[in-house]
Design goal:
Elements lengths: L9 E6 L20 E6 L29
Antiparallel strand pairs: 1-2
């Protein structure tokens, strides 16, 4: 979300944070698919969405709460 105005074009690089950084517990390729890129907010745009694929597990009983960073 772009705050404090929407004049001009703004570019923001993003990437998911791999397992091992800080306290993140999700594993790329098993729990989610990593993603990186650049969001471009054009003049007047204030909101963008980054879609991250969350992968299903065959045995949902074994799945615990996990996290990844962005």
């Amino acid at each position: 979300m772009r705050k404090n105005g929407s004049d001009g074009v703004v570019k923001v690089d993003y990437a998911t944070v791999p397992l091992g950084d800080t306290d993140h517990t999700a594993t790329d390729g098993r729990d989610y698919r990593s993603k990186q890129g650049t969001l471009v907010f054009n003049h007047g745009e204030t909101e963008k969405t980054i879609a991250i694929e969350i992968m299903a597990h065959e045995d949902e009983d074994e799945v615990r709460d996990e996290s990844f960073g962005l």
